[in-house]
């Protein structure tokens, strides 16, 4: 803002002037009011502090020597409790020692009486500009922190970069997200990262495992209940949808939800309101939904076990978390992170992995994904004797693992050769193992439509129900 320029409409800065000399207060008030500032005056530091506890101001202009609390004491109090509020100190007793004392107390600027009123105007405008700059820097830092991936969500592989890219693009919307992936692959970490990087990131993140509760209890947990609605309802509960208002509700294992609960969930999502158990009135909520499952929901829809309309309602944005075996060197990044996390609490001075351990970790298939790796590293640290983990520290199934590959037949004997039908059966079985029995993904890999894949699974007696 230029000297003498009035603040923009809607941006009237509020100035608190503190001086026990009425004439000086009047001069300052007239000068700053004429330039478009909103002025409030007090004749004592005590009165000024009472005003600061009740109201917001952009700048404080205070005399130094006043009866009772001095200007330096007021400045110190503001610096301790309102550190982003600039204070300009004015005094008729200017000296180097006085100036140093006010600056040490936390003053933004120091003026000696008598001063030109334009000097005060310039000091006020500089203080406001400086405060606005600090606020903008703070906002940008918060924005950078919000948009950065969570430090717990490690991954530098191409597969994980794709996940991070989708999260970055969708996080700051309110679109419903469906996260899929094998058990232990980190679906909740994805959900938390979506939440943290969204504008709802300062709101609550409320998570519930739909597979862990029977239908009646799950309904009560999600939608709430009135006191006396059932035997153990000793008080009224708002429910998790309402608890998550302003934030994110994470429904884990949504594929395990019963048909009855699916219908109630769909209605709540469409109406943006819930009906508590035992109640008749709808209660609105403002929560973003992120759902997750390790089930093949498309297959469940085809078999009639999951509502098609609910599937499309929750699958607005789909994020597929790759299994650990498809993440390359991320295994080593995660292992190192777990070493940092567990070595201290376990009282071990473990700092890294030996080359032999790294080789074993990279070759192992990790059917339990990140959760299994975490367990493996924690166990290895507990058993470790050196600063680097050794092969002997690893669980036997990881230490002794022999990677398999798809081989039709390893023989030159014609009598051992197999039919094309057997080749197909073995390859379909291998693909199913590689994608964690996800039939939708297997069909894409094999180049089959889903009907063809199901017919072959039935023919070869492969796969689960």
Chain-wise SSE layout:
Elements: E1 14-18, H1 22-34, E2 38-42, H2 45-54, E3 59-63, H3 71-81, E4 87-91, H4 96-105, E5 109-112, H5 117-147, H6 158-170, E6 177-180, H7 187-196, E7 205-209, H8 215-223, H9 240-243, E8 248-252, H10 259-271, E9 273-274, E10 283-284, E11 288-293, H11 297-302, H12 308-314, E12 317-320, H13 330-342, E13 352-353, H14 355-363, H15 369-383, E14 388-389, H16 396-399, H17 420-434, H18 439-446, H19 450-460
Helix pairs in contact: 2-3, 13-15
Explain how this protein is built.
- The N and C termini lie far apart (71 Å).
- Strand 3 (59-63), helix 3 and strand 4 (87-91) form a beta-alpha-beta unit.
- Helix 13 packs across helix 15 (369-383).
- The protein contains 19 helices and 14 strands.
- The model is unreliable at 1-10 (pLDDT under 50).
- The chain is an alpha/beta fold and 465 residues long.
- It has helices at 22-34, 45-54, 71-81, 96-105, 117-147, 158-170, 187-196, 215-223, 240-243, 259-271, 297-302, 308-314, 330-342, 355-363, 369-383, 396-399, 420-434, 439-446, 450-460, and strands at 14-18, 38-42, 59-63, 87-91, 109-112, 177-180, 205-209, 248-252, 273-274, 283-284, 288-293, 317-320, 352-353, 388-389.
- It has a five-stranded parallel sheet, with helices on both faces. A five-stranded parallel sheet has the order 7-8-11-6-12. It has a two-stranded antiparallel ribbon with strand order 9-10.
Distance between the termini: 71 Å
What gross morphology would you assign? elongated
Ranges with pLDDT <50 over ≥5 residues? Answer: 1-10
Strands in their spatial order, largest beta sheet? 2-1-3-4-5
Report the CATH architecture of the largest domain: 3-Layer(aba) Sandwich
The CATH C-level name of the largest domain is Alpha Beta
User: What is CATH's topology name of the largest domain?
Assistant: Rossmann fold
CATH superfamily of the largest domain: P-loop containing nucleotide triphosphate hydrolases
Query: What would you call the structural class?
Result: alpha/beta
**How many structural domains?**
4
Q: Approximately how much helix is present in the residues?
A: 40-55%
- Could you tell me the strand content as a percent range? 5-15%
How would you sum up the major sheet? 5 strands, parallel
Please count the beta strands (DSSP E, at least 2 residues each): 14
- The whole-number mean of residue pLDDT values reads 86
Separate helix tally? 19
Q: Rg, please? A: 33 Å
